[in-house]
């Protein structure tokens, strides 16, 4: 049986593009379809534009801090349209690079929605025709979810629309307590928007180390972000151009804009998965084995569409593992251990390895090393923002199980620390490393005394 392609990829985001380019470079005939813009969530409506917005909003804090350093910045003003235009120009540039890289690698790109017709056939909606492939890779990504059971839910935007608002709202209510909710609340607050965060639980970022989450609460409040915790929306209404949000705790909020950030779902609806026999699970995620194979022998899936670890570098590595295994005769299994993570809140969070709770639940007897301090830069500026660093160390082996930092440049620190922690670094090796002075990062090698464990245990057990 001969097919049009050795590999056909559905979805040209970070994972799909990397897998397709590599497979093509290894000699496969590869086609890829993208219904939106090449680059996917990360480049077009996720990590990259979000980081530009984070940078933009951080300037306001820098202006505030500059006085004691001798600066008079006078009246400052911010122009939302300038930011959006320049962000879009940069996204266009990256989108172009992605397309060029696909072309250079010899991958045939279709700007079309693609739907599975059967195990080897993909229908290209935009072209009105079918193509066949020996192997099919689904990397269709995810999409923001909104709670449609809430009356007026359609009055709220998602992160997709937040990147293209005509105007910066004067006030906003953000729903959610995860990555996107926290990051966007900080972005809007930094840009001067009166911001309220509504979260259904008592603690934001509930899967992060509890000390980090607690510190985040304090820092958000310092930044003037209002928190409505342990409550959810019951209704959104539009009254005289404003959005009125009713909450289960009885409070009513009035704002110019409402944003849903209550999770993302795999983008599998209407993909023809049932026609090809591809099984899905929770939230419509495609079920795969450790080799990214779906329930169908020749169909594979990587990235957010599998709802495994929804991070760009993970999708890229899954794409590499897939291409190496199938087109370079180098069986490669994705390693999900010690994936460093960051939340670009203000201050940001960087984390790798086990939280204190995870370590204790896994049966580790742990030493906790913690430092909560005022970074040097803030001691002059008067900014009350503090920094917290925490090491979770296995008592028996001295192995560092996890590292959690909230504060200035913590994602940059964690990326480097992750190398050592992934490879089993001991606490004694931290101690044996000379500090770099003056820096905030030096604290991590000067943590000498474990904090009062019984207190930590009592507090969180
Ligand atoms: P998250 O899973 O991080 O957070 C979703 C939030 O919505 C949680 O706080 C959740 O509550 C809450 N929620 C879920 N359902 C409801 C509901 N019915 N009513 C009210 N609240 C609800 O999802 P995000 O959308 O923020 O981000 C999606 C994924 O994208 C992340 O998990 C991450 O993998 C990735 N991402 C990574 C970033 C980064 O690396 N910096 C940035 C942005 C996204 P609860 O906590 O109680 O479950």
Could you say which small molecules are bound to this protein? NADPH dihydro-nicotinamide-adenine-dinucleotide phosphate
Q: Profile the largest sheet.
A: 7 strands, mixed
Rg for CA atoms: 24 Å
Strand content: 15-25%
Q: So, CATH architecture of the largest domain?
A: 3-Layer(bba) Sandwich
Roughly how much helix do the residues carry, as a percent range? Answer: 25-40%
Tally of individual helices? 14
Instruction: Tell me the span between the first and last alpha carbons.
Output: 61 Å
Describe the global form: globular
| Strand tally | 21
Q: From the helix content, strand content and strand pairing, which structural class follows?
A: alpha/beta
CATH class of the largest domain: Alpha Beta
Overall pLDDT: 96
Low-confidence stretches: 454-461
Whole-number total of structural domains: 3
């Amino acid at each position: 049986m001969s097919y049009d392609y050795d590999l056909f990829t559905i979805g040209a985001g970070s994972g799909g593009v990397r897998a397709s380019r590599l497979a093509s470079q290894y000699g496969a005939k590869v086609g890829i379809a993208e219904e939106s813009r090449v680059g996917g969530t990360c480049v077009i409506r996720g990590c990259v534009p979000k980081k530009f917005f984070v940078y933009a909003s951080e300037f306001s804090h820098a202006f505030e801090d500059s006085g004691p350093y001798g600066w008079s910045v006078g009246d400052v003003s911010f122009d939302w349209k300038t930011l959006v235009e320049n962000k879009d120009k940069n996204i266009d540039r990256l989108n172009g690079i992605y397309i060029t890289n696909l072309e250079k690698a010899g991958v045939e790109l279709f700007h079309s929605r693609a739907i599975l017709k059967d195990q080897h056939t993909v229908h290209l909606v935009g072209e009105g025709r079918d193509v066949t492939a020996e192997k099919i890779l689904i990397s269709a990504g995810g999409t923001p979810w909104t709670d449609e059971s809430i009356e007026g839910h359609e009055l709220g935007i998602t992160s997709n629309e937040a990147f293209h608002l005509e105007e910066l709202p004067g006030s906003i209510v953000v729903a959610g307590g995860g990555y996107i909710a926290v990051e966007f609340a900080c972005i809007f607050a930094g840009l001067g928007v009166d911001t309220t965060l509504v979260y259904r639980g008592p603690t934001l970022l509930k899967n992060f180390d509890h000390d980090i989450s607690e510190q985040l609460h304090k820092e958000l409040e310092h930044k003037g972000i209002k928190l409505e915790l342990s409550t959810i929306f019951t209704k959104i209404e539009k009254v005289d151009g404003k959005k009125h949000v009713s909450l289960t705790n009885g409070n009513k909020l009035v704002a110019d804009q409402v944003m849903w950030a209550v999770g993302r779902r795999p983008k599998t609806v209407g993909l023809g998965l049932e026609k090809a026999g591809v099984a899905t699970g929770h939230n419509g995620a495609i079920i795969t084995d450790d080799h990214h194979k779906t329930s169908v022998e020749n169909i594979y899936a990587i990235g957010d569409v599998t709802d495994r670890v929804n991070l760009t570098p993970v999708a890229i590595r899954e794409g590499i593992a897939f291409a190496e295994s199938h087109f370079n005769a180098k069986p490669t299994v994705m390693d999900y251990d010690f994936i460093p993570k960051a939340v670009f809140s203000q201050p940001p969070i960087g984390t790798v390895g086990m939280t204190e709770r995870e370590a204790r639940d896994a049966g580790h007897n742990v030493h906790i090393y913690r430092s909560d301090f005022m970074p040097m830069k803030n001691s002059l500026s008067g900014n009350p923002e503090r920094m917290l660093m925490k090491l979770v160390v296995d008592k028996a082996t001295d192995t560092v199980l996890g590292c959690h930092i909230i504060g200035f440049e913590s994602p940059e620190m964690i990326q480097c620390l992750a190398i050592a922690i992934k490879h089993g670094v001991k606490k004694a090796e931290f101690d044996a490393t000379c500090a770099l002075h003056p820096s905030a990062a030096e604290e991590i090698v000067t943590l000498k005394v474990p904090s009062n464990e019984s207190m930590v245990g009592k507090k969180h057990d």
